[in-house]
Amino acid sequence: MSSLLLIAGVLVAMFVAYNIGGSTTGPAFGPAVGADAISKPVAAALMGVFFFIGAWTLGRNVVTKLGSELVVDTGIFTLESSIAVLFFIGVALLVGNVFGVPASTSMTAVGAIAGLGLAGGVLDFAVMGQIVIWWVVSPIIGFWVSLIIGRYFYARLNELVAMERSTGPLLDIDRSGLVPILRAHRTTNRRELVGTITVVAIGCLMAFASGTSNIANAVAPLVGSGELEMNPAILFGGIAVTIGAFTIARRTLETMGSDITELPLTAAIVVASVSSTLVVFLSALGIPASFVIIATMSIVGLGWGRATRPMTAPEVVAGDGGPPVTVNALAADEEGEELPPIGTEDAEDIPSPGALFNPVTTARVVLMQNVVPAIATAGAYLTFRFVPVFGF
């Protein structure tokens, strides 16, 4: 019976990891696929490799935090309770999908485990408080870092990164020697090559960051139960993520997966870099992070900083008004254009036909990012507290 439960637990954990692979491949490699830099199978393969590297290295810290440190008595992680926790994670994420909001798997997993800990009276409130504090602080850091980049550095970055794909393939394979060698195609220019390498590298960084944080969401309960060792748990999770990347991620790659990849290429690179760096940093501390919330605030900060370039710092602080924050504001600088000093630009030079972020939509995303984990927490607590089979 115990073996059957373990097999069931591994399958449920792999199902969660499968969905993680499907939902995170698009945001990570959508820009690269959309720019015809790499194919969908290559994107899936890169996702699987770099997710596994992130999970195998820094991901262990987050698995340990959720599986053994969030509760003071790991004996509460029985096979039955671990499977139930994974079930609540899956149900809560389904609610987010129904509302069209990419829910945070990290916050949802923490919520479900916290509900279990509350029901059993073994939740470590100090560890929980540390996690919640970083959940509040990290999006603020992402906002301000992106704002500074948008105001002072975005235009120059746009000059370096912005590119247009030339006709013909990006690379050729030289098979004249014993070892095939990749060479730039004759129509490929230097800007195109650098931009392509950059956007693929950013995708790999996002996949690595996802591995460092998200592997715990799928396997931490089973590892905490002591029924599954860390290494095989990460291996099973990595395999499931790769399968998800090669199958259901195709749709998210076609649609670019999330609001992040609907931004101009330069903006997508900035947001992905800032968000991924913060997620990797938090994973090194063992803190499960919400990439979506950090990325959302990074988008807002980047657009805000870019749109206030026509204003001096005192005018911004005084709130003397300014242009609306728009996608076109982020993409307004043309290649080779000489930029005037900050505070001397005409606000009308930054067009505004499409809003970068709709306040109502942004509020809905942030609200659901908190509601979904709350559903997981409440559902887990009520079930473990009042359903007799669990004995709490």
From TrEMBL:
InterPro entries: Phos_transporter. It is found in: Membrane. Keywords: Membrane, Phosphate transport, Transmembrane, Transmembrane helix, Transport. It holds the Pfam family PHO4. GO terms for cellular component: membrane. Its main location: membrane. It is a multi-pass membrane protein. The chain crosses the membrane at residues 44-63, 75-99, 132-154, 193-210, 230-249, 287-305. Potential transporter for phosphate. Belongs to the inorganic phosphate transporter (PiT) (TC 2.A.20) family. This is Phosphate transporter.
